[in-house]
Amino acid sequence: MNRLAQHRTALTVAAAALLAVVSFGCSSGNSADQTNTTAGRSAGAPSAAGPLGSSPAATSGTAGGSTPGGTASGAGDPTSTTAPAGPTAAPGPTPPGPTVTFPTSTTNPIQVRTSNTSGVRSGDTITIHAEAPPGSKLYGVKVRLCAGDAEIAYDADLNPTQTGLCVLHPLAPGTDTLKDLPVGPPNQSIDVTFKVGAGVDSYNRQDGTPVNIRCDAAHPCQLAVKLQFPGGFGFKTYRLEYA
């Protein structure tokens, strides 16, 4: 009887030990499965911080964000999305300066008188007297025979081959086409004599345009006078009426 009780006790202990071993094995398997499942979710499922596969290095390169080894502006970071600086705007055009004009005959301070310019004949001499008023000076006088309808307003107008407004060659032997004289100290006055001619002058301008200027009783001409004074120069013209 005692022996039978001992066998039962031994069987009970063995059964308890076997149950304990089985329970431990089941518990270890469940724990490993749970761990694997958690790791799979962490690596494969997208998180709230970003899309699948995003990493701190990829998400830190936002505009203005700092990256390891970079600066706050994202310089040198290939993942930076900071927009590059646009081109510097070119400076606007420089406004033009003031327009410089020379005095014309309306503001010319020089006083001019001429001898008779009516009823002239070829070879007659015209005297031009130019005088500076008190406080001014006269530096030079240029006189040229020009077509009667020419408008003389610029220095180039007295250049026959440039504008075709004035006589280039003498209209008669011994007559004048141009007088260009300086005025010496005290730069106050000068008398210029000009021997006028009658006839036709033909030539070509620099651009090849033909020019024909006639001075006679049917075609009045004019003496164009350029006057140089302090601050600029001006023009005066005097009509020549031929007999």
Features of this protein?
alpha+beta, 243 residues, Immunoglobulin-like, 5-stranded mixed β-sheet, 3-stranded antiparallel β-sheet, 27% strand, 21% helix, 10 strands, globular
List the helices and strands and how they pair.
Elements: H1 2-44, H2 56-59, E1 111-114, E2 118-120, E3 125-131, E4 140-147, H3 160-163, E5 178-182, E6 189-195, E7 199-204, E8 210-215, E9 221-229, E10 232-242
Parallel strand pairs: 2-10
Antiparallel strand pairs: 1-3, 3-6, 4-5, 4-9, 7-8, 9-10
Summarize it.
With 243 residues, this protein is of the alpha+beta class. It has a domain at 111-242: Neocarzinostatin-like (Immunoglobulin-like). It has helices spanning 2-44, 56-59, 160-163; strands at 111-114, 118-120, 125-131, 140-147, 178-182, 189-195, 199-204, 210-215, 221-229, 232-242.
